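Fill in residues.
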């Protein structure tokens, strides 16, 4: 996440001058230049044991603000193209909210990688954490090919994945919003 907070998460808005940086002790620092504005962990137990850490999960105001920001962009604004040995293909990132028959709710972020021919490509999914370090590239898919890949391969794959991971219980429903589209050209 690139962004930050004002005060005590009052606004939930992440000004671009803020950065979330990983530390050696598996915590994250929210920095504004040289100043540390907050320290986070992704581990619930650690957050409960240490008063100097906040738990950074999908329900945290900073994460919610970033998800809202990315969800409000049109699909044409969320795509990038990179070079990687894992390509060619597409990495899509989804925010999924599911609801069980008894009203229980669950939120998840799912990454799906798809080769040019529509096959699932796990090497592309592993790029999700390394995207920011990749070199930029020209788009490799014309608009019509993107739409076909999305409709015929990625959407059915997402539904299968949600049921396979049991993120949508029997009798439940879900809503999925694409929050990332990364075209991956093969490295030269």
């Amino acid at each position: 996440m690139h962004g930050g907070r004002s005060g005590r998460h009052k606004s939930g808005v992440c000004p671009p001058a803020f950065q979330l940086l990983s530390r050696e002790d598996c915590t994250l620092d929210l920095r504004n230049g040289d100043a540390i504005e907050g320290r986070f962990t992704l581990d619930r137990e650690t957050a409960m044991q240490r008063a100097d850490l906040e738990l950074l999960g999908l329900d945290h105001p900073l994460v919610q603000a970033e998800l809202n920001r990315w969800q409000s962009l049109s699909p044409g604004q969320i795509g990038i193209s990179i070079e990687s040995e894992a390509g060619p293909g597409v990495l899509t990132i989804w925010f999924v909210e599911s609801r069980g028959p008894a009203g229980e709710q669950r939120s998840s972020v799912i990454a799906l990688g798809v080769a040019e021919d529509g096959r699932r490509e796990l090497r592309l999914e592993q790029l999700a954490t390394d995207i920011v370090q990749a070199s930029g590239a020209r788009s490799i898919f014309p608009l019509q090919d993107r739409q076909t890949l999305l409709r015929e391969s990625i959407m059915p794959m997402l539904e299968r994945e949600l049921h396979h991971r049991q993120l949508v219980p029997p009798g439940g429903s879900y809503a999925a919003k694409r929050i990332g589209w990364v075209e991956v050209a093969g490295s030269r």
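The radius of gyration is 18 Å.
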